[in-house]
Amino acid sequence: xxxxxxxxxxxxxxxxxxxxxxxxxxxxxxxxxxxxxxxxxxxxxxxxxxxxxxxxxxxxxxxxxxxxxxxxxxxxxxxxxxxxxxxxxxxxxxxxxxxxxxxxxxxxxxxxxxxxxxxxxxxxxxxxxxxxxxxxxxxxxxxxxxxxxxxxxxxxxxxxxxxxxxxxxxxxxxxxxxxxxxxxxxxxxxxxxxxxxxxxxxxxxxxxxxxxxxxxxxxxxxxxxxxxxxxxxxxxxxxxxxxxxxxxxxxxxxxxxxxxxxxxxxxxxxxxxxxxxxxxxxxxxxxxxxxxxxxxxxxxxxxxxxxxxxxxxxxxxxxxxxxxxxxxxxxxxx
Length: 334
Ligand code: GDP
Hints:
Layout: H1 3-8, H2 13-27, H3 31-44, E1 52-58, H4 64-77, E2 82-87, H5 89-94, H6 106-110, E3 114-117, H7 125-141, E4 146-152, H8 157-162, E5 167-172, H9 178-185, E6 193-196, H10 203-224, E7 239-242, H11 251-268, H12 270-297, H13 299-313, H14 319-330
Parallel strand pairs: 1-4, 1-5, 2-3, 2-4, 5-6, 6-7
């Protein structure tokens, strides 16, 4: 059976192997692999889009893997199939990993109804994110109806995850200060749902954090999200829940909130619009990254760049003129 057929076949060991093979193919940098991966993606595309894409972020230690394990096992118990993919900004910089080094999600990772794939270990954040996005499509085609994309709350990775998922969830610790960080970085604005984890440790602190973040979100909602029209019955206001991933408490309420969000988004057409906009944004992100790479690799640009750089540094050439001259070199027929 070819790769596509194995992917679309019934769940089982053969399908798992096919998923791993497909993802390896699309993570490869070899041109022939890339061509085959593109062909495969095009063939799979009609079979994608039926799952719910859930983004989860939070600082290291907030409890992401504990939470995903508890949620994943609960949902599998209800008949779902769950894929977990990671975007690890540390791996794209250093080749090391914040997310991948420890044994994570012990039960979920060996469950036949779950598929867990760590972040690609090299490439720029944009490249790693693009590959995760493609891996997500492979998992969807293979019939996983929930795809979780996880990231660590450092760098720009939250924006990348929010930009490829239907719902973005931010995990927080029940102490103040932490939440202020997220507000400062603009991450809170991305959140459709904020979860205060480890509420079992200090319920009062969790309740205080919940109130604080709820009011912060209200302010952000008034000023920061112009797409949210007033007086719209289908409108979703970002919510704040508290739970304990370790004790698996609050998981049901979390899933109810996700289900309600999904219903509102689907019913109002916002889900489809969000996905359309995301697909185009990804196309442009990839185009821009490809152009940047082609520019830097262009032989004439490479030979002109050192002199032009010095000229700009020493004020002999205006930066904008220098840019125009270098871009001119890229024109066909030049
Ligand atoms: P990650 O780095 O965000 O994936 O965090 P982990 O899931 O690895 O959790 C970090 C630590 O916090 C582990 O020792 C967990 O057992 C613990 N932890 C996670 N969730 C909870 C919780 O709800 N309550 C308590 N008390 N500890 C938790």
